[in-house]
C-alpha cells in the first residue's frame, strides 16, 4: 500500500508539441525537490502531429512501483485545443482534480464545454509561445499554468531543469513559463458540479476469432479511412485571388491530399491533411497560408 | 510401388519431387547438404519443375521461402544446426504469417565446440517458433512424413509451417530400403495447394503487418489456437495415409508398453535402437516398454497422458542440454503430468549429445540406471548419460 500522497498527471498533446518534454521537466523538478517521480509517454509510433499521451506520477516520499498508464488522473493538461473535440480529455479525471487547457477561449466558455467536479484552468499558451518563442510549441508555457493552478511543484524547481534542457533558449522558455503562471485564469472547484457529457468516437478492436489467418489485411488501401486530419495543428488556407492554378502545391503534398476542384483551384482534403505546411512553403505566389487550427 | 535403397536425405528429396513443389530457397549445410543437392539435381535434370533460389545464408533461405509461400507457391527448404539458428527470427514470421512452408531439419549439435554431428539442440532452440514439428525414425518415415507434412501444413484449417526432423547422419546419411509409391498415389493423398490468401498485385493484401498493444495479443491467441487445432488435421492426414499406404503414424507411439511398469521416452532415430534394448529386457522378463514422441508441436497432451499414466516410472532421454535447467523434453513431460493424481515418477537423462552414440547395450544400461536412481529417490538429478567423470 502506498501511504504517501500520490499525484498522477495525464498530458494530452500532439507529436512535436513537447508534451514528453513537459512531463520530463515536471519529473526532474519534483526529483530536485526530493520527491519521487515518473515521466513516461504512451509508447507508440510517434509522428509529428499525431495525438500523444504522456504521464507523470509524483510521490512525496516513496518510490513509485506502478508503471501502467494513468487512467484516473488528479491533473489533466491539454496542450492542443484541437484535441478537445476528438479526445475525451476528462476521462477518469478524479473529482476534485484539475483540468488545465491551452485555449484562446475565455474560462467561462471552456467551462460550458468541459465543466465538472474539478478545478479548471485556462491559458492562451499558443499566443504566449508565438510571442516569446516564435513557434507554437507550448510545453514550457503550459508548465507555468500547471505550477500556478496546482501544488505539484514549485516554480523555482523548474528553472534548473529548463536551463539544462534548453541551453541558449532557456531564458525565453522560462519567460514563457512565468508569463503563463501570471496569465492563467482559474475557476475554483464547485464540488457538486455535474460533468458535462460529450460524445466521442470510440475505438473498437476485434476479438481473436475475427482475425484472418496471419492477421492478413485483405482490404487494399484501407489507410484511406484513417483520419490523419486529426493530427493537424495548423490548417492551409488557399487564397484564390493569388492562385495561378499551377498545381505545385498538389505536386509537393506528401500525402497527395491537395487536389484541383471543379473551378480549377486547388484545395486540401482536410480529412487527411496533416497540416505539414509544405504546400504553403512551395507555393510560388504565396496563395497558401497556414493558420492555427480553430477549436471545435 | 518401388523398393529402393535410399538414405533419408534422398528419400526426402524424392518426397519433395512427388509433392511437386514450386519453389525451394535453400543453403547447404552439413548434414543436410544431400537433400538440397539432390533437389538441385532433380530440377537440373528436368525431373522436378521448380524454382531453386540459391541464397547466401539460411536467414535468406527462410526469407525466400516466406516470399514464395506468400505468393501461393508450394515451398520447401532444409537446414540443420547452426543453419536453423540463423533462420530463427524468420521462423517466427513464417508461422505468424501462416505460411505452410515444409522444412526438413537434419538435427545437429550447436557450436561451440563446433560439431557437425547429431543431437536435438537445434530443435529445442526453435521449440517456440510456432511450427508443427514431427520426428522421423528411419528413411521410410522421413519420406512418408514429408508427404504428410505438405498435406497438413497446407490444409485451410491449419496453414502453418511444418518441420520434419531427421537425426543428422544417423538418418540423413544412412542408406536403407524405402518403399516409394507411384506419383499418382501420392496425388490422391496430397491435393494441390490452394492458398486462401496470396500476395497478388491484382488483388492486393497486406501480410505481416504491424500491431499495437491493442491487437498483438489477439493475433498471438489466434496463431496459438491454429497450432493447437492442427492436431485434428494431423490425425486425419496420418489416418488417411495409413489407409492408402498401410503405414500408420500417431502423435505418441508405444512399443511393448501395455503392461510396462517402466517406460523409456525417446524421439527420433534412437527410438529404433531403444526398441532392441526393450526386446532384450522383455526376454529377460522385465516389464519395460518404450514411448516414442513423434509429434513435438503441437504437444500431444491427451495422447501422452493416456500413454504413460499406467506406468510406475518414466525415464526421459533428452538429446539436448538446457544449461542450468532440466532437459527440455523432460520438463515438458513433467508439466504435462503435474496436475494428474495418477502419474509415473520421472527420471531424466541427457545423452547422445553432438553425435555421441548410444548402443543397444547403452539403452539397457540407461533403463537400469534410471530404475536404480528411482529406487534411491534421486528424482531431482539430471544425469548426463555416459559422461566421463
Number of domains of chain B: 2
Q: What sequence of helices (H) and strands (E) makes up the elements of chain A?
A: EHEEEEHEHHHHEEHEEHE
**Oligomerization status of the protein chains:** heterodimer
Element order, helices and strands of chain B?
A: EHEHEHEHHEHEHEEHHEEHEEHEHEHE
Please characterize this protein's 3D structure.
The complex is a heterodimer of chains A (296) and B (389). With 296 residues, chain A is α/β, with parallel strands linked by helices. Chain A folds into two domains: 6-187, Pyruvate-ferredoxin oxidoreductase, PFOR, domain III (Pyruvate-ferredoxin Oxidoreductase, domain 3), CATH 3.40.920.10; 228-292, Alpha-Beta Plaits (2-Layer Sandwich). In chain A, 26% of the residues lie in helices and 19% in strands. Chain A has helices spanning 19-32, 107-114, 125-132, 139-149, 155-166, 170-183, 248-252, 278-282, and strands at residues 6-14, 36-41, 51-59, 75-78, 98-102, 119-123, 185-187, 234-238, 258-260, 266-268, 288-292. Chain A has a seven-stranded mixed sheet with strand order 2-3-1-4-5-6-7, sandwiched between helices. In chain A, strand 5, helix 2 (107-114) and strand 6 form a beta-alpha-beta unit. Chain B is α/β, with parallel strands linked by helices and 389 residues long. Chain B folds into two domains: 2-245, Rossmann fold (3-Layer(aba) Sandwich), CATH 3.40.50.970; 252-384, 3-Layer(aba) Sandwich (Rossmann fold), CATH 3.40.50.920. In chain B, 40% of the residues lie in helices and 19% in strands. Chain B contains 13 helices and 15 strands. Chain B has helices at 8-18, 33-44, 58-70, 81-86, 88-96, 121-125, 139-154, 183-189, 216-245, 270-283, 301-308, 328-337, 360-375; strands at residues 2-7, 23-26, 51-54, 75-79, 102-107, 132-135, 162-167, 175-180, 252-255, 262-266, 288-293, 295-297, 313-318, 345-350, 382-384. In chain B, helix 3 runs parallel beside helix 5 (88-96) and helix 10 packs across helix 13. Chain B is globular and about 70 Å long. The A-B interface holds A 44-45, 203, 205-209, 211-218, 220-221 and B 96-99, 159, 196-197, 203-212, 214-215, 217-219, 221-223, 225-226.
Amino acid at each position: 500500500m502506498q501511504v504517501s500522497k500520490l499525484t498522477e498527471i495525464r498530458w494530452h498533446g500532439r507529436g512535436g508539441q513537447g508534451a514528453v518534454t513537459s512531463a520530463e521537466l515536471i519529473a526532474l523538478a519534483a526529483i530536485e525537490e526530493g520527491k519521487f517521480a515518473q515521466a513516461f509517454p504512451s509508447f507508440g509510433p510517434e509522428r509529428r502531429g499525431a495525438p500523444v499521451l504522456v504521464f507523470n506520477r509524483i510521490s512525496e516520499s516513496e518510490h513509485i512501483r506502478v508503471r501502467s498508464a494513468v487512467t484516473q488522473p488528479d491533473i489533466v493538461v491539454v496542450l492542443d485545443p484541437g484535441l478537445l473535440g476528438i479526445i475525451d480529455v476528462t476521462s477518469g479525471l478524479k473529482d476534485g482534480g484539475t483540468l488545465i487547457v491551452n485555449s484562446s477561449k475565455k474560462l467561462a466558455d471552456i467551462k460550458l464545454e468541459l465543466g465538472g467536479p474539478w478545478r479548471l484552468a485556462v491559458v492562451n499558451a499558443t499566443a504566449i509561445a508565438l510571442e516569446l518563442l516564435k513557434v507554437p510549441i507550448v510545453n514550457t508555457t503550459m508548465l507555468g499554468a500547471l505550477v500556478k493552478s496546482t501544488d505539484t511543484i514549485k516554480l523555482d524547481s523548474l528553472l534548473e531543469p529548463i536551463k539544462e534542457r534548453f541551453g541558449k533558449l532557456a531564458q525565453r522558455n522560462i519567460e514563457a513559463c512565468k508569463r503563463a503562471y501570471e496569465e492563467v485564469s482559474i475557476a475554483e472547484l464547485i464540488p457538486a458540479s455535474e460533468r458535462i457529457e460529450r460524445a466521442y468516437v470510440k475505438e473498437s478492436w476485434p476479438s481473436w476469432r475475427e482475425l484472418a489467418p496471419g492477421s492478413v489485411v485483405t482490404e487494399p488501401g484501407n489507410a484511406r479511412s484513417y483520419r490523419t486530419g486529426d493530427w493537424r495543428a495548423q490548417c492551409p488556407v488557399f487564397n484564390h485571388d493569388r492562385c495561378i492554378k499551377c498545381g505545385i502545391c498538389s505536386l509537393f503534398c506528401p500525402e497527395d491530399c491537395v487536389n484541383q476542384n471543379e473551378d480549377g483551384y486547388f484545395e486540401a482534403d482536410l480529412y487527411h491533411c496533416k497540416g505539414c505546411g509544405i504546400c504553403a512553403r512551395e507555393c510560388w505566389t504565396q496563395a497558401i497560408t497556414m493558420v492555427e487550427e480553430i477549436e471545435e | 510401388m518401388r523398393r529402393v535403397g535410399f538414405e533419408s536425405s534422398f528419400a526426402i528429396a524424392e518426397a519433395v519431387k512427388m509433392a511437386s513443389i514450386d519453389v525451394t530457397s535453400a543453403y547447404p549445410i552439413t548434414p543436410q547438404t544431400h537433400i538440397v543437392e539432390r533437389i538441385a539435381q532433380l530440377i537440373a535434370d528436368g525431373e522436378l519443375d521448380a524454382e531453386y533460389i540459391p541464397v547466401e545464408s539460411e536467414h535468406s533461405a527462410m526469407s525466400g521461402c516466406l516470399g514464395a509461400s506468400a505468393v501461393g507457391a508450394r515451398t520447401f527448404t532444409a537446414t540443420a544446426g547452426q543453419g536453423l539458428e540463423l533462420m530463427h527470427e524468420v521462423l517466427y514470421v513464417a508461422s505468424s504469417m501462416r505460411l505452410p512452408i515444409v522444412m526438413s531439419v537434419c538435427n545437429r549439435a550447436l557450436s561451440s565446440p563446433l560439431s557437425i554431428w547429431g543431437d536435438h539442440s537445434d530443435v529445442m532452440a526453435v521449440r517456440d517458433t510456432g511450427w508443427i514439428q514431427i520426428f522421423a525414425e528411419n528413411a521410410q518415415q522421413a519420406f512418408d512424413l514429408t508427404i504428410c507434412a505438405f498435406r497438413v501444413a497446407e490444409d485451410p484449417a491449419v496453414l502453418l509451417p511444418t518441420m520434419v526432423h531427421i537425426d543428422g547422419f544417423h538418418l540423413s546419411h544412412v542408406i536403407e530400403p524405402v518403399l516409394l509409391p507411384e506419383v499418382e498415389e501420392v496425388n490422391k493423398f496430397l491435393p494441390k495447394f490452394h492458398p486462401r490468401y496470396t500476395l497478388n498485385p491484382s488483388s492486393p493484401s497486406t501480410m505481416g503487418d504491424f500491431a499495437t498493444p491493442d491487437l498483438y495479443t489477439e493475433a498471438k491467441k489466434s496463431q496459438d489456437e491454429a497450432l493447437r487445432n492442427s492436431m485434428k488435421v494431423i490425425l486425419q492426414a496420418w489416418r488417411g495415409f495409413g489407409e492408402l499406404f498401410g503405414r500408420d503414424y500417431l502423435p505418441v507411439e508405444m512399443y511393448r508398453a501395455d503392461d510396462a511398469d517402466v517406460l523409456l521416452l525417446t524421439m527420433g532415430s534412437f527410438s529404433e535402437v531403444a526398441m532392441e534394448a526393450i526386446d532384450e529386457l522383455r526376454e529377460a522378463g522385465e516389464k519395460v516398454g518404450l514411448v516414442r514422441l513423434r509429434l513435438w508441436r503441437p504437444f500431444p497432451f491427451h495422447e501422452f497422458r493416456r500413454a504413460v499414466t499406467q506406468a510406475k516410472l518414466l525415464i526421459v532421454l533428452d538429446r539436448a542440454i538446457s544449461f542450468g535447467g532440466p532437459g527440455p523434453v523432460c520438463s515438458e513431460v513433467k508439466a504435462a503430468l503435474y496436475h494428474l493424481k495418477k502419474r509415473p515418477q520421472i527420471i531424466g537423462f541427457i545423452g547422445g549429445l553432438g553425435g555421441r552414440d548410444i548402443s543397444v547395450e547403452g539403452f539397457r544400461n540407461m533403463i537400469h540406471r534410471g530404475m536404480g536412481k528411482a529406487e534411491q529417490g534421486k528424482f531431482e538429478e539430471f544425469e548426463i548419460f555416459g559422461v566421463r567423470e
